[in-house]
């Protein structure tokens, strides 16, 4: 006789720590980059990314989102098969006003309702949950047991790291059930398991740690545990996990008492219209995975199913339609063509010297280590017509690496002619999908190393490339390259507009008009003190003369001119610094180098310290009034000074 699956909690022993909820969920709810999009989109991103990461061979991963309305005998069989009585006993003992406690109370009510709403997510063409119950590197343990761990495989995305918490967040029970057909073990049937993020609690005089697991009860070192169980597909049907109609290895997740935690409008079923929900699921897949879909790596469907009859009541398919086809066209454009000045035009260029620093760790994997690399970023753009101005991501730049997911959409600069565009920046293994160029041919063989660098620069939500992730800072000799990565978004904005969307004739190539576009004066040049104090206390102002400055093509820098002016009537020295940095979205950009500085006029009572080519410091005594200066300002290596904006500092 088949052993029933049971929920197993872990008793608190000694100084075992307990938690009042899921740390990962709290991080998601705490805000950040992921809050710019609905949590449903975050769920789609996490699921599809992991399916892509676990694709077998070069085939297509297929993902199905099924909304199940479970009622009548089907509901009763589900409750029995998932040992609802055992889980409810622990959940009913949870008290308090914390977020997890309130959610679980709502979940108990949802499971007792006549109709239980579940979201079932299945994939095929993937590896499945391999490894035994204690294999720390296996897919099973990483997804179903561990927290804050991810795969070490080069180029993979999240692979069951922090982002998986979003699946539990969409269950009012904070519970997910699993079945998996494992590649190479298909003949063994389906592997079944479950996990609940139930908080620590007391029941029947016993204190229990957070977390409960559905499986075959066992023990390890005297501690109760639940082991995954292999069953025939028919034996998983009551759990709605039989994977009927799906062929090949893959994994199915069942989210009982499904809800959208960041939405308020709901129906009597405590969810919004199921057909609308299906459409939003596939829209999210198209929005974030149009690269993988267009490359033939991913297919996504969402369906509304009657759980008892298995009849499909509604079907929605993720497609690369008119919303996303301009991005696909931009990614497929060859370099060397004219600018995209009319609707429908496309253009592309390569950033051929983006630095990837030397990889110095892990020490035990010499095959992963490499020297500094000058990598290629392919930038493409499609100018869209006014009728396409309603594009959800118009005038943005999609950041894409080889996984085939859009990491983020960067808001682009506006066009002076009022037009709109769709742009894309591809890095790492994604370069293998673009038309080749001399620059991409030179990078052949380096794509995997570049891919890994950008992967290491992604935070846990995989929605940015930043130089402050622990993985990047510990694995690479990153000093000297952080500023370039931090300023990449700004660099891309300017490259797209000035290099791909503007024809040569009207665009300035030197002089004050181009400088006006490039230079953003720092706030430090203004004196915000009261007028009376400004008139007495000495200060130095460094004022740039834009009209007299110009771009020196031969020296690849800006020949700037300006004046150092002393203000204030009191006696005493005054000092001020002159520096320039790339404009960055966050933090300080990389410093630009100042050289060939000349003072034109009397230098009495003025001292100048130019020992640091990143900052010149002027100091003037009371006898000084003003002096004119000239200098050459050049960006860090690999930055195009005619395309990249910079900021004056003190």
What does this entry look like structurally?
The chain is α+β, with helices and mostly antiparallel strands and 650 residues long. The protein folds into 3 domains: 6-317, no CATH class; 325-500, no CATH class; 514-649, Immunoglobulin-like (Sandwich). Helices cover 22% and strands 30% of the residues. The chain has 16 helices and 27 strands. A hairpin with a 5-residue loop joins strand 15 (396-400) and strand 16. The N and C termini lie far apart (79 Å). Residues 30-35, 154-161 and 523-534 have low confidence and may be disordered.
Jot down its keywords:
12-stranded mixed β-sheet, 22% helix, elongated, Immunoglobulin-like, alpha+beta, 3 domains, 650 residues
Short description:
Helices cover 22% and strands 30% of the residues. With 650 residues, it is an alpha+beta fold. It starts with 5 loop residues before the first strand and ends with a strand.
Query: Which overall shape is indicated by the principal axes computed on the Cα atoms?
Result: elongated
**Structural domain tally:** 3
**What is the helix tally?**
16
The average pLDDT is: 86
What is the share of helical residues?
A: 10-25%
Structural class: alpha+beta
